[in-house]
Amino acid sequence: MARAKQSTLKAAGASGDDVEPGVRLNIEPILREGASEKVVHRLLALVKTGDLKPGDRLPSERDLAEMFQVSRPTMRESIRALAVLGVVNPRHGGGIFVSALEAADLLGPLSFFLTLKEVEVDGLYQARAVIEGEIAALAAVLAKPEDIDRLEALIEDQKNTINRPAEYRLVDTEFHRLLSELSGNPFLARAATSMNVLGMEFRKTASESETVIAGSIEDHQHICTAMRAKNAEAARKAMQAHMANVLKTTKATRST
Q1: 75-101: per-residue pLDDT in tens?
Q2: By CB neighbour count within 10 A (0-12 exposed, 13-18 middle, 19+ buried), where does 208 fall?
C-alpha cells in the first residue's frame, strides 16, 4: 500500500490580518480504524516533541479533520479527549489552544482511557467511589467553614434548578469540582473531573428526573454535614453512599 501523502496546513484564515494564525503541522492521514485514539496519540506526540508548545493555537477542527483525513465527529471526539486530559483548551468561538500542561493536567493514561474506551458503568462508579470518597475525606480535614458555606450555597442553587435538569447538571458539576479543589490534591481532582465528565454521559437520562435530583441533593447535604463536623470517615462514607445511589439510578434508567 502506497504511503499516504503528508499534509501541511494552517488554521483557516491564518493568512489574514484579522485572524490569529494556527501552528503549522506536518501530519500524515489517519487510517479509519481506531481513528480517534490514533489522532490523540499523534497530537500528544507533537506536544512531547515540542512541535506543539503551551499557548500554541491549533488549526480549526475542520482543518485538523482534513489534515488527518478523518471525519469531523472523529476529530471532535479526539479534541474532547485531549480537553479532558488537560492538554488542550478549546475556547468557545476562539479556537483550540495547547494548555500550560501543569502537573495536575498530566494524568494522561487514566483520562485517555476513560475518554476513548467504552467503560462499564459499574467499574466507573466503583472508581469514583474510591477517588471521590478520598477527596471528601481530605476536604473534611482541610476545608474552612467558609469553604463549606460555598458548597452549601451550591446545594441551594441545585434546589432552585431541580425542575431544570440541564442547569442542575452544571451546578452539580461545580459542586464536585469545588469539593475536589478543597481536597488539596490536584491529581485526585483531575482524576475526579475526568470521571465526572464520563459519568455525566452515562447519567444524562437519569438526571432528568426530579426524584433522582432530589436524592442527589440530599446526598450532597450529608457530605457537607460530615465536613462541618470535621469527620473524614463520615464524609468518605457519605460520598461512597452518594456514588452507590448514582450508580443505582443510572443503571435503572439505562435498563428501561
Answers
A1: 988 888 787 667 888 876 678 898 876
A2: middle
Residues 31-58: tens digit of each pLDDT: 554 677 788 888 888 887 778 888 899 9
Q: In terms of domains, do 188 and 223 share one?
A: yes
Helix, strand, coil distribution of the chain in percent, nearest 5? 65, 5, 30
User: Within this chain, do residues 124 and 89 fall inside the same structural domain, yes or no?
Assistant: no
Task: Give me 77's grid cell.
Answer: 471526539
Task: Judge whether 113 lies within some domain.
Answer: no
Following DSSP, what letter does each residue of 227-238 receive, concatenated?
Answer: HHTT-HHHHHHH
CA–CA separation, 176 and 66 (whole Å): 37
| Domain final position from 42, 76, 105 | 105
d(CA 224, CA 105): 27
The H-or-E segment that residue 132 falls in is helix 121-142
C-alpha 252/C-alpha 129 separation (Å) is 18
List of residues 6+ apart from 80 with CB closer than 8 A: 115
Range of the domain at 69: 7-105
First to last CA, the chain: 47
Tell me the per-residue pLDDT of 169-217, one tens digit each, with 9 for 90 and over.
888 988 999 999 999 998 898 888 878 877 776 676 556 678 889 999 9
- What's the pTM? 0.59
Count: domains in the chain: 2
Q: Note whether 96 and 146 are same-domain residues.
A: no
